[in-house]
User: Fold these one by one.
Assistant:
Number 1:
Amino acid sequence: MDSVYLEQMVKRERVPMDWVKRIGLVLILLIVNFLVLNFFSAAFPILLALSAWGGMIVWRRIDKEYEYIYTDGLLDVDCIYHASTRKSMISLDCREFELIAPASDTRYQSVFNKSYNKVLDAGRGGIRENTYIAICTRENNTLKMLFEPNERMLEAMKHYIPRTLVVAGENRR
């Protein structure tokens, strides 16, 4: 059997809250620098440089995209901040999934609405028409992951876990 290796990028959509976070960050940095200038003027240049560096890091973490890497039954989800910094979010063997189904599928809403230890939204943000929800239990912790795989990735996963994956528009027995 041939090896399967697929990559997919999903850019998180910008929402008005992103701009609220950025404006709040600028205001906090201005207030902190003003207070430092008034009370610790001798250390102001050093603290200004540190606050600018910290502000830049936080500013860049607001802009993110997700990369799904599927390799022979293994699914890795990485978060890429500002197109430059990568952080591995989770790595799972697809056999660990109890269910992967479209978020819009009404047959599984009771499963999707349960309480989970961890919820990972690795999509464009929120529930959309092509959002899938994956349910997994690992070391007595439950995970609900929202992600948006493309057709090629769904097809590759379907060959690996045919009983677990429900594709949109498909009847499951």
Note: The first helix runs from residue 16 to 39.
Number 2:
Amino acid sequence: MVVILFLLGYLAYTGVQDSKSYYVTISELHKMGNGAYSKRLRVAGNVQPGSIKRTGTHVEFVLMEQDQLLSVDYTGTEAPPDTFKDDSQALADGSFGRDGVFHAKGLQAKCASKYAPKQPGNSMQAEPAKSVTQVQRPAMP
């Protein structure tokens, strides 16, 4: 009974350790030194325009954060989301290699234009959708 409980505890602990990841900015990643190579990390930034190179589900691109750049090599099992485009915000989940490239196994992206404020005089840009569940209630006497 003790051996079974010990094994279950060990499996639970190693499962949590394997799924744990640290969120860092690109500048923090560059400052981590040797500690960056042994941890599972999540790094966010904007996709540099013109840097996306696709081959099936394999994608190479560059993330930007102010004046910092990070080359990313995504080799996940699924194709990147449709919102993954130039200038979109992206979040890569993986590990930083000694070759200076971030090797991502997971990739999330947001559409850059969807969250931009509406420009004055530009009637072509859609406004955010309003909730269908909003109901006008008559004023109470």
Note: The chain has a mean pLDDT of 77.
Number 3:
Amino acid sequence: MAKVTLRIEGMSCGHCVNAVNRALHSLSGVTVGTVTVGRADVEVAEGGPAPEAIAEVVRAAGYAATAVQAG
């Protein structure tokens, strides 16, 4: 599994964390780790979505997101 960290702007509270968490859980092939204000850590199974596609799901939930680390 590859680890991806997302930098997320526009989050300010627990509701924001829950919204991002729900968006990430909607992705097949992604295991959600920690989601905090400003950051999310996920693991992506082989053949799972690309980091940019993961960030796009967070953007669709209303937050600016950038994949800042993949490994």
Note: Residues 2-70 form a domain with the Alpha-Beta Plaits fold (CATH 3.30.70.100).
Number 4:
Amino acid sequence: MGKARRKDDTGGRNLAVNRTARRNYEIEETWEVGLALLGSEVKAAREGRIQLKDAFAKVRNGEVWLHRCHIGPYSHAQENHEPERPRKLLMHAWQIRRLIGKTERAGYTLIPLRVYLKGPWIKLELALARGRERH
């Protein structure tokens, strides 16, 4: 028999957390999305060589792309990847259509909150956020 799970239980462990996101932004909505990664990026991310500090996402040509997410080189790879290349986020078409309408409103942006393992997959928690006023 399988282990009973709560519906909101993501399981797995965090690979990277964007700690400043909740302090600098008001989070409106979150989504669990997949990341399209190369082989050396997956190995490096599992080693914990991933940073979300200045990362953000953009909707471009009906696809969602993650920018400025740094994934360091994998120590045992013969040919490594470019550390800060744009990475495609894997979402359903209806989710992307909803995002297009919401991100066009003034002041809203897409911020990654954390990268984590869910079974054998690497997932990203993406948030629709609005910048907080700094006094």
Note: Residues 30 and 49 are 24 Å apart (CA to CA).
